[in-house]
Amino acid sequence: MTSEQLDQLSINTIRTLSMDAVQQAKSGHPGTPMALAPLVYTIWNRVMRFDPQDPIWPNRDRFVLSNGHASMLLWSVLHLTRTQAVDADYEILGQPSVSLDDIRHFRQLDSKAPGHPEYHWVSGVETTSGPLGQGVATSVGMAIGQKWLANRYNQPGFAIFDYHIYAVCGDGCMMEGVASEAASLAGHLGLDNLCWVYDNNHITIEGNTNITFTEDIAARFLGYGWNVLRVGDANDIERIEHALGVFRQTKGRPTFIILDSHIGYGSPHKQDTPEAHGEPLGDEEIRLTKRSYGWPEDAKFLVPNDVYEHFAAGVGARGAQTRRQWTELFGAYQAQYPELATEIGQMQRRELPAGWDRGLPVFPADPKGLAGRDASAQVLNVLAQNIPWVLGGSADLGPSNRTTLTYEGAGSFQADSPGGKNLHFGIREHAMAAIVNGLSLSKLRPFGATFFIFSDYARPAIRLSAVMELPTIFVFTHDAMGDGEDGPTHQPVEQLLSLRAIPGLVTLRPGDANEVVEAYRYVMQLRHEPAVLALSRQPLPTLDRRTYAPAAGVARGAYVLADAPGGSPEVILIATGSELSLAAEAHEKLRAEGIHSRLVSMPSWDIFEHQTQDYRDSVLPPGVTARVAVEQGSTLGWERYVGTSGHVIGMKTFGASAPLKELQKKFGFEPDRVAAVAKELLGRK
Ligand SMILES: Cc1ncc(C[n+]2csc(CCOP(=O)(O)OP(=O)(O)O)c2C)c(N)n1
Ligand SMILES: [Mg+2]
């Protein structure tokens, strides 16, 4: 067979596997894999430095399929390249990442060929995608990550990190705002390690894009400062390879390749139709399409042996060689730069360096206290110095969030200063969270920040953080009505509840400066869970830990801060964040009146839910049903802890624009009210 014939055979294998898998599953998206098989073939077999034997080799090129519905592209190449499976401890398991049997069970329970690309479920998937726009936005984080890693770790003669990031996207990704936010920042930062290929097929679900999407996309990306290329025929693999070569030569800006394609390519009745997007072709149409490819019409899930060999000779051989060279290089690097090499190893395994928590502040009791955001600033500055790969920033609210790293040498990340640890995301919350995901996928330890209310703008990417089990950190300040005069648009109500509802996401709302320290201490040790810190804008009294229990209790999600005599309360007060000191005052008032109350600080439902039943019962004894929860957020959900005979002092409406003191009065966040509610529950006046 000539090499052209082998190319074609490989491309048609991807196409027919995709068609067969979708048909078998009676669900999925055949048309785009049929159209983009030549592109994905070219990227993988001709260009990418990726070793199927070690899919987590740190200097591999990254491939992101942002139009995740075309997942059969990924399952096909992972299978055909015989990419190996890796487990959560980064051990290579000696079995394929995606077997032919997985492909036969496309979209079925337990198959390694699920509906959309799932990081953490299938080795070789670099990021979870499916919500359109997320993949490309995440790829910008990967590109920032590569630049930062190269700046810190590359040394003369040692290009330890010089990989590229390729992302494929469709009309949907290009319409989503998050992609625009991310592309704008990528252009500003001149990320020349990043290449997006846009599948310009003029088709989305509702029909031709002339009903929705008629902008001049080339002009748009030129406007962002990208290098814009066009390949007019998605079947022309030489042109595709050439364009990818131009990308690698281009310095100082990212590359955008517009690829004109035909969805459902080769299908006599479905090509260029929206039906090809998301419906099985049907047995008869599959036969006709296979005929048009010159493929055996009745063969199903056919992989000619030559195709495995062709991939082994292409990406397999190139990947093995580049990884071998890199491994040798890294050996010499270890000898010459042992500390840097150790850092790389720790980072790759998501470990913390020795002494990572050295110098974390301990705050003395102080009735005037400190704002959550100010305590956080001190902690972040310590952590970022102790852990070289902690970096992050805010969506233009650094001065308000207090997330700017201010120590000598922290620096700002810009095109000409890629070693900076302060990232400036601009007013782009959604892209910020996706970029934070991309940085975390690059094994850095990133944080992103904004006002808590605007977590809504970042939420889809925070959710993906949890889906992917990434240890990202989101620092959200102005977590309640503390920004009083700004009014209801800026006062979170349902945000705490909505984030608590995301499985696997650890949401923490610390109640004083020492709880902020302990919250960070807990979060830093997470390896597979993202975390949200909801912090106050206004000062909160720093509790006197000689009379109250130590803040280390934060690590259990909730703990008894102060108790009734003999540890047998008649009423329990539960509070979080800025309401903790208020509940503490109420507790003192009740005590002065001879009422036996227990004060519980509950900075995190999520962590508390993971404690043993014994521990949970020791904090909230089932026999004590008079319970009051106080939190400046939606009351919804607190029934879980106060039960049917308890009471929640929270928000049932939006807030209002006024000074905080007046808002606290209007909405009932006052010690007297808390004490009064407790007494009412006990039937006392
Ligand atoms: C954020 C988001 N909105 C909606 C969808 C549902 N959806 C999946 S594919 C698709 C159409 C995508 O069109 P395009 O990107 O052009 O893909 P093509 O059919 O050309 O492959 C839509 C609306 C989604 N996956 N993500
Ligand atoms: Mg399209």
Structural write-up:
This protein has 685 residues and is α/β, with parallel strands linked by helices. The strands form 6 sheets. A 6-stranded parallel beta sheet has the order 12-11-13-14-16-15, sandwiched between helices. Strands 1-4-5-9-8 form a 5-stranded parallel beta sheet, with helices on both faces. Strands 18-20-19-21-22 form a 5-stranded mixed beta sheet. Helix 1 (3-25) packs antiparallel against helix 11 and helix 7 (177-189) crosses helix 16. The chain is elongated. The N and C termini lie far apart (93 Å). The structure holds thiamine diphosphate and magnesium ion. The site of thiamine diphosphate has 19 residues, from helix 6 and strand 6. Magnesium ion is lined by residues 170-171, 201, 203-204.
| Structure class | alpha/beta
If you average the pLDDT, what whole number results? 97
Range of helix content: 40-55%
Each distinct ligand: thiamine diphosphate, magnesium ion
Morphology: elongated
Uncertain stretches of 5 or more adjacent residues: none
Radius of gyration, Cα only, in angstroms?
Answer: 28 Å
If helices are DSSP runs of H or I spanning 4 or more residues, what is the number of helices?
25
Quaternary state of this entry equals single chain
Strand order of the largest sheet: 12-11-13-14-16-15
Instruction: Report the sheet with the most strands, covering strand number, pairing sense and barrel closure.
Output: 6 strands, parallel
Would you report the number of β strands? 22
As a percent range, the share of strand residues is: 15-25%
Distance, first to last CA? 93 Å
